[in-house]
Write a structure and sequence with these properties.
- It contains 3 helices and no strands.
- The longest helix has 43 residues.
- Helices cover 84% and strands 0% of the residues.
- It starts with a helix and ends with a helix.
- The chain is mostly helical.
- It folds into 2 domains: 49 residues; 46 residues, no CATH class.
């Protein structure tokens, strides 16, 4: 393969990575909006914002999805824990 083709191929792959990163960030924003709606619904109904075992269940589901898609479970678990920690921090700010 010629050097120019290799460079173009790499550049194309990097553009795909950038697109996927943008999609990932958009999904995180979407997740935050959904969580915000859930929080409002729970407050209106007088329900606790955090349910017992909810965090554990989220991580469990994420690990199952990781297995299904053949992604390292520990990586997915860390990402989900970061998302949850951020959500907890935002809940404290909103109080």
């Amino acid at each position: 393969m010629k050097k120019e083709k290799v460079i173009k191929s790499i550049e194309f792959q990097k553009k795909l990575l950038d697109k996927n990163l943008k999609r990932l960030i958009k999904l995180i924003v979407k997740r935050k909006k959904i969580l915000s709606r859930i929080k409002k619904i729970k407050k209106k109904a007088g329900l606790p914002l955090q349910e017992a075992g909810e965090e554990r269940e989220i991580i469990k589901r994420a690990k199952q999805l990781a297995q299904h898609f053949k992604v390292e479970e520990d990586v997915i678990e860390k990402i989900v824990k970061i998302l949850i920690a951020n959500e907890k921090k935002e809940k404290k700010i909103d109080k």
